[in-house]
Amino acid sequence: DAMCNSTSLTTCETRCKYLYYTQPSCTMDSRCMWDGARLSCGGKCELYNSMTTCDFNPSCMWFNSMCTLRCSYSFVNVSSKPACNNTAVCNFNDATGVCDNVCSKVTGGEFQCAVTPYCVYNTASGTCNSDCPLLTSQALCEGRPSSCMWDSNAAACKKTCTRAESKTSCIMAVSYTHL
C-alpha cells in the first residue's frame, strides 16, 4: 500500500507523510524529517537502503551507494555556499539563494554522468544534463513527455515507466500522472 513502508515481510508502518502534518510533530519522530519546500513530512534519507526507495522521496538522492539529502537540503543557507560549491554535484545559485544539484558540473564523460544522481548523458551533444527529478516545475517536466512524468502527489518530476530501473519502481509510479 502506498501509505505504508514495509519494515519486514510481516509488518507495515504508516509513512511519515500520512502520520504528521506539522513540522514539530514530524521532527519528533526519529524516522521522519520535515520538507520545508513541500511543507510535508517525509522519511529520513539515510533510512532508505535502495536506489528505488530513495528516489521516490523528493528530498533525497542516491549517491555513492547511499541515500542522502539532495543539495538543496544539505546546504540550506548562504553561509553554506563554499561547502555547496565544493561538492561534486552541487552548485550554489546566487539568484535563488539555493544550493542545487548541477549535472553540467560533471566532467569525465558518460560513465561519470551515469553515476551522478539525477543526471543523464546526452550522446548527441556529449554533455551531462539534468534528469527528470531535477526538473522543479510541472512545465519543465512536461517539456520531456517521452522521458518524464509529473507526480502531482509529491509535486515532483519522475522518470517514465519505460525508463524505470526496475519493475518495482514502475509499479510505484502507477499513481503518477503520465505526461
Detailed description of the structure:
With about 180 residues, the protein is of the alpha+beta class. It contains eight helices and twelve strands. The chain has helices at about 15-20, 25, 50-55, 70-75, 80-85, 110-115, 140, 165-170, and strands at about 5, 10-15, 30-35, 40-45, 60-65, 65-70, 90-95, 100, 120, 125-130, 150, 155-160. Strands 1-2 form a two-stranded antiparallel sheet. Strands 3-4 form a two-stranded antiparallel ribbon. The longest helix has 6 residues, at about 110-115. It is globular.
Could you give a short description of this structure?
By secondary structure, this protein is an alpha+beta fold. It is built from eight helices and twelve strands. It has helices at 16-19, 23-27, 51-55, 71-74, 81-85, 109-114, 138-142, 167-172; strands at residues 4-6, 12-14, 32-35, 40-43, 60-63, 66-69, 90-93, 98-101, 119-122, 127-130, 148-151, 156-159.
Count of alpha/pi helices = 8
Residue share in helices? Answer: 10-25%
Q: What characterizes the major β-sheet? A: 2 strands, antiparallel
Report the β-strand fraction as a percent range. 25-35%
Query: In what order do the strands lie side by side in the largest sheet?
Result: 1-2
Taking all Cα atoms into account, the compactness measure Rg is 16 Å
Query: How many DSSP E strands?
Result: 12
- CA distance, first residue to last residue: 24 Å
Morphology call: globular
Average pLDDT confidence is 80
* Unreliable stretches covering 5 or more consecutive residues: 174-179
Order of helices and strands: EEHHEEHEEHHEEHEEHEEH
Structural class by SSE content:
alpha+beta
